[in-house]
Design brief:
With 705 residues, the chain is mostly helical. It has 3 domains: 62 residues, Zn(2)-C6 fungal-type DNA-binding domain (CD2-Gal4, Irregular), CATH 4.10.240; 182 residues, no CATH class; 304 residues, no CATH class. 56% of the residues lie in helices and 1% in strands. A two-stranded antiparallel ribbon has the order 1-2. α18 runs parallel beside α20. The longest helix is centred in the C-terminal third of the chain and has 41 residues. The radius of gyration is 29 Å and the shape is globular. The relative contact order is 0.11. Its main location: nucleus. Keywords: DNA-binding, Metal-binding, Nucleus, Transcription, Transcription regulation, Zinc. One of its GO terms (cellular component) is nucleus. This is Fungal-specific transcription factor domain-containing protein.
Length: 705
């Protein structure tokens, strides 16, 4: 048994005699033979600790750990779900859903479940919770009718929009494929409606994706879903028999699913695409490449599948279709199609081309490498923390877990920093994917995912993790909110998606959790958290105007936000007057150094805060209900009853005062990852609430309304 226990330092007697001290419990062999107490001395503070006590604590820890494992085994959720096979053939929907992400620890936001633990909150918002638990799927039926294919010039404009926007981030189609398709439809003698069904299917899908930004900007009349539903009319029984073309078609469906509901789970669609890729051997390295452009096309398709598979699987805490160790093929080469065509006459393989090619200016694959590399880091995050979770359950002592978590966390944070530093710089961005602000958001979002995994798995004292990891979580969540809030001001580049909503909702709840459990928050931390939560709620309300099925979740967010603001007001009041007075004294001291032309502006800017300080000093009994915890005076009548508003069917976001775009035009490669039934990767109470999974609809029964 001793060989499986942590190695202990030499005891005091063995150290004095300079003899070898073994790892036996409750005494080392020498002390046992001598019949004396075996004591270890901490050299840092000379405290004495009996090895017998250590042995007793280790036995108690082992006993408690076994009880926890037994309780976890008893609490596994089992559901009577009809057997339905998933595309990989090895798992059924029943086997996957029997252990949903919300029921598994270490995968998302289990720690935030304590936000719902407040009995007063549940009682005051009982009607809201009941409404949510019975909320129907808002996207169950398609409401947009199929439309005809546009004219030749209009289709050409949509194809060009596709190539100048979506293609930059997802170049799994060759440019020549897109224009050859357009030529077959409009340049030949036949009418477009008489073209092959596969051509029409792909053309409608490209139009659907290409029309997303123009439609959002009011520059295109046809709703993108009209093109998508028209494409489905040409989805024949041969849709999976075309090899690489079929894989590309499935990727087009997934790409459209980022923005609009596609009628099924993108996670299932991308796994079907992955099976095609594996059957075609796209993950394997071959030396018989002749056409460099076709070899490049295969690599683009495979790595596009990889990117979506990694994002959707990590979001849902579900297994990857293919392990990284089984992937032999490298990235596509950083070159334009024309370069590869010219080199095909003299070079046989892409690897040979890479060894002689010196990339100069940016090619059409440069930007997508950023996402490929980021998804590799996502894969390592998922793998590392899954390993830690498995070791924790099997044999690893709990008291050693915190060190392992911090080692993995620091290593992966460093990898993300290196990734961000190596992101390309585009002097004049033409779309969102070329903007530095977009890379900043991806960086913040991935760090938030990483810290969420770490904080879920790290040991906690009374439900609270270490101060260090809480600080990282708060900083990362605040940065994620502010990065997205800032990007929303780029109207012609941004558009809201459900994955963005998931990201922002998660970040906001993370901030609430941090300020709920942290004991050492400074007034600056509270102000920053308050401002970001206001930005988060404002953005979520705005998003719900475009994602109608998100309104229920916005109502819950508002209720939680109001509740936590009420709790924190006394904390903010205690240090607010002192903080404001100190700032104003600093302002007055530096006032003399300001040029005359700026002095009036300064005085106007600080007038409100001076009056606020006067009110606090002269009216110590000022009601905390009139003071928001960011230090601003508010009217208590302005606080909305989110439950009542939702129950009355209020159109959240209508008539608001948002100064940033209400629609937006562009995506941040956050894949619209699954059906509305499995939209959210949160855990425990929060996971079941936001996931909207009908197989767990009885979860709310556990609450005492």
């Amino acid at each position: 048994m001793a060989s499986h226990l942590p190695r202990l330092p030499a005891c005091q007697l063995c150290a004095q005699k300079k003899t070898k001290c073994d790892n036996s419990r409750p005494k080392c062999s020498f002390c046992a033979r001598s019949g004396i107490e075996c004591v270890i001395v901490n050299p840092a503070d000379n405290t004495r600790l009996s090895r017998e006590l250590i042995d007793e604590l280790e036995k108690r820890e082992k006993l408690l750990a076994s009880k926890i494992r037994a309780l976890e085994t008893e609490s596994i959720i089992t559901c009577d779900v009809p057997e339905s096979f998933s595309p990989d053939g090895s798992q059924t929907l029943k086997s996957v859903n029997a252990s949903p992400p919300a029921a598994r620890g270490g995968a998302g936001l289990g720690f935030v479940a304590r936000l719902f633990d407040d009995a007063d909150w549940r009682k005051s918002h009982a009607s809201l919770l009941r409404t949510l638990s019975n909320a129907p799927d808002a996207a169950a039926e398609a409401s947009i009718a199929p439309c005809p294919l546009p004219s030749g010039p209009e289709t050409q404009a949509l194809f060009e929009k596709y190539l100048s926007w979506s293609h930059i981030q997802s170049p799994f189609l060759l440019r020549r494929e897109v224009w050859e398709l357009h030529q077959r439809l409009f340049m030949n003698a036949t009418r477009p409606e008489d073209a092959a069904h596969h051509d029409l299917f792909r053309a409608f899908l490209i139009c659907a994706i290409g029309s997303i930004l123009p439609y959002s900007n009011g520059l295109h009349r046809q709703h993108p879903e009209g093109y998508y539903h028209a494409a489905l009319q040409y989805l024949g029984p041969q849709c999976l028999t075309r090899g690489l073309d079929s894989a590309q078609d499935l990727l087009l469906v997934c790409r459209f699913g980022i923005y609009y509901y596609i009628g099924t789970s993108i996670w299932d669609v991308i796994r079907l695409c992955g099976r095609l890729c594996i059957e075609l051997g796209l993950h394997l390295k071959t030396d018989d490449e002749v056409d460099l452009l076709q070899a490049q096309r295969k690599r683009r398709v495979f790595w596009q599948f990889y990117m979506i598979d990694r994002y959707s699987s990590t979001t849902l805490d579900r297994p990857f279709l293919i392990d990284d160790r089984d992937i032999e093929i490298g990235f596509p080469v950083d070159a334009d199609d024309e370069e590869l065509e010219r080199a095909s006459s003299s070079i046989r393989t892409l690897d040979q081309f890479c060894s002689t090619h010196n990339p100069g200016s940016r090619s059409e694959t440069t930007i997508v490498f950023v996402s490929f590399r980021l998804r590799q880091i996502s894969s390592r995050i998922h793998t590392e923390f899954s390993r830690l979770k498995r070791e924790q359950r099997e044999s690893s002592p709990t008291h050693l877990l915190v060190g392992h978590v911090h080692v993995v966390l620091n290593k992966l944070l460093q990898e993300l920093e290196i990734w961000r530093r190596n992101a390309p710089t585009v002097a004049e961005p033409s779309c969102l994917y070329e903007m530095q602000e977009w890379y900043d958001l991806l960086h913040a979002r991935e760090r938030l995912y990483l810290v969420r995994r770490a904080i879920d798995l790290a040991p906690k004292m009374d439900g609270t993790p270490s101060r260090n990891i809480l600080t990282i979580l708060l900083k990362t969540a605040l940065e994620t909110i502010e990065q997205y809030y800032s990007l929303c001001k780029f109207r012609r580049f941004m558009t809201h998606t459900r994955s963005y909503f998931h990201m922002l909702f998660t970040a906001g709840l993370s901030v609430m959790y941090c300020i709920s459990v942290s004991q050492n928050l400074t007034p600056a931390d509270l102000r920053a958290s308050s401002e970001s939560l206001l930005h988060c709620q404002e953005t979520l309300v705005n998003m719900s105007g475009h994602l109608s099925d998100a309104r229920a979740y916005v109502a819950v967010f508002e209720a939680l936000h109001h509740d936590i603001s009420r709790k924190l007001r006394p904390q903010a009041e205690s240090g607010q007057a002192e903080s404001i007075t100190r700032e104003l004294h600093m302002d007055e001291a530096s006032l003399a150094s300001l040029p005359d032309m700026y002095r009036d502006t300064f005085l106007q800017a600080t007038a409100g805060r001076r009056q606020q300080t006067t009110n606090l000093v002269n009216n110590p009994g000022l009601s905390s209900e009139c003071l928001d915890f960011d230090g601003s005076l508010v009217n208590p009548s302005h606080v909305d009853d989110a439950a009542a508003r939702y129950a009355m069917g209020d159109q959240l976001g209508d008539g608001g005062t948002n100064e940033y775009p209400s629609n937006g035009n562009g995506d941040l490669i956050n894949w619209g990852f699954l059906t509305h039934d499995s939209l959210w990767n949160m855990e425990s109470a929060l996971g079941q609430f936001a996931y909207g999974d009908p197989i767990t609809s009885g979860f709310w029964d556990g609450f005492e309304f």
